[in-house]
Amino acid sequence: MTDKPGKKKQKPPAPVTSRQTSGVPARVAAHELIARVLFDQISLDEALLACEPMLRPLETRDRAFARAIAATSLRRLGQIEALLAGFLEKPLPERAKRAGIILIAAAAELLFLGVKPHAAVNAAVGAAALDHKTRPLKNLVNAIARRIDREGKEIVEAQDAEKLNTPAWAWESWQRAYGEETARAIASAHLKEPPLDFSVKEDAKGWAARLEGTVLPTGSVRLAKTASVEKLPGFQEGGWWVQDAAAALPAKMLGDVKGKDVLDLCAAPGGKTAQLAAAGARVTALDKSSSRLARIRENLKRLSLEAELISADALRWKPERSFPLILLDAPCSATGTARRHPDVLHLKSAGDIAKLADLQFRLLSKALGFLAPGGTLIYCTCSLEEAEGPAQIEKLLRNRKDIARLPLTAAEIGEDADALAPLITAEGDLRTLPAQFESLGGLDGFYAARLKKLA
Ligand SMILES: C[S@@+](CC[C@H](N)C(=O)[O-])C[C@H]1O[C@@H](n2cnc3c(N)ncnc32)[C@H](O)[C@@H]1O
Question: For residue range 291-319, what is the model confidence (pLDDT) as tens digits?
């Protein structure tokens, strides 16, 4: 069911009409989202945008439900596929592979979202009846969905959830980098919905009180429950922005940036640009995507912050001056964000990691060319893969005698140094993992190293 026949353009799906059975439209939208990710190989965020015409007519609650079904289906895909393989006597015909999606979503509802059996089963059958390709399989969908309800719980409880829901290449990569126990802990953290984190312009304690959240040892504010961000206090007035607590750490590694020139490379959508601007830096933010750069502009406007924005490919850009401080948040596999983006692990492969590592090294070498002698550069990625993190720095330091690593201390990234010490490696780099801060709700996986250009 996870065949990857390559990207192809599709017409936007038609809105689901009110003639259809209640509860079915949200499911049909969920099926479309899952199909877009698994068949068209686009991210869930891109699928949500592409399916906007289908989602817009739904009630807010049903839109959230469609997203939850899709996200849970992707989070638990390995377990669900193993379960279905045991129930289906033969693979579904190619022309009716959408029936497989309907069953995946039904399993997510029945086994992981606690939806009432009759509602999940009836909606699955109702959705199958709507499409001429799946209609002939309506009875099969009914029979399998009922069987998932009767037998599924016991089967999934006995499964190795961590291993089944992690592609083999990722499991091997994490096991090599962190050992079996930590690889399993990372995979386990990916099974949970993450909390919502905010970076604040100032007064973290005050915002935590207003938002009914807590302040993490890193200084970020965390909300335990998911919420509609735009409706939260402080959104309109621009008091904070959404940013995972781990993603907020690399910018802090530049130290006090007040009044200093900082080049933020690969800056969009601007989480780190906002941090640097809020800390008083004169920020030049560069990104190659003009549409993503527009999002920085919007975000900065809402936050009443300023930065110079440059739309350019960092590999070709020729600045007129050098910079004393640079932050390079290189494009990466984003496996460190799999908690928030459960599609990531299904869309990436070991081959992608190798290609991205090559691009990251070229960007890092280029960025060092923009750095003034004596200047500091932070290299970071939201990846769990060694190849996209420490391996880049080791390779660089082997080849460049004019560059040195400036080791980080826990006290530099937050007030509670004891709590933060496990996030610093023996070499003095930052390495966060989804299983860290477990009792507080986890962290995204991030890697960052601080480098100095010797004068
Ligand atoms: C990980 S995201 C950056 C996230 C951002 N720093 C933040 O904190 O919100 C990587 C960004 O790199 C940009 N990018 C990729 N290749 C680039 C290149 N050659 N030159 C400039 N930007 C590039 C992408 O458009 C994307 O916005």
Answer: 999 999 999 999 999 999 999 999 999 99
Q: Is 331 in the pocket of ligand 1 (CB under 6 A)?
A: yes
According to CATH, the topology of domain 24-159 is: N-utilizing Substance Protein B Homolog; Chain A (1.10.940)
Whether 74 and 44 have beta carbons less than 8 Å apart is answered as: yes
Q: Which two tokens stand for residue 192?
A: 């949970």
More confident residue, 39 or 1: 39
Q: Mapped to the 3 state alphabet, what secondary structure does 252-279 carry?
A: HCCCCCCCCEEEEECCCCCHHHHHHHHC
Does 341 sit in the ligand 1 pocket, CB within 6 Å? no
pTM: 0.92
**Distance of CA 146 from the midpoint of ligand 1 (Å):** 46
Could you tell me what percentage of the chain is helix, strand and coil, using 3-state DSSP and rounding each to the nearest 5?
50, 15, 35
* Structural fold of domain 196-453: Rossmann fold (3.40.50)
- Averaged over 51-77, what is the pLDDT? 96
Please give the helix or strand (H or E) that residue 328 lies within, else none.
Answer: strand 323-329
Measured from the Cα of 313, ligand 1's closest atom is 20
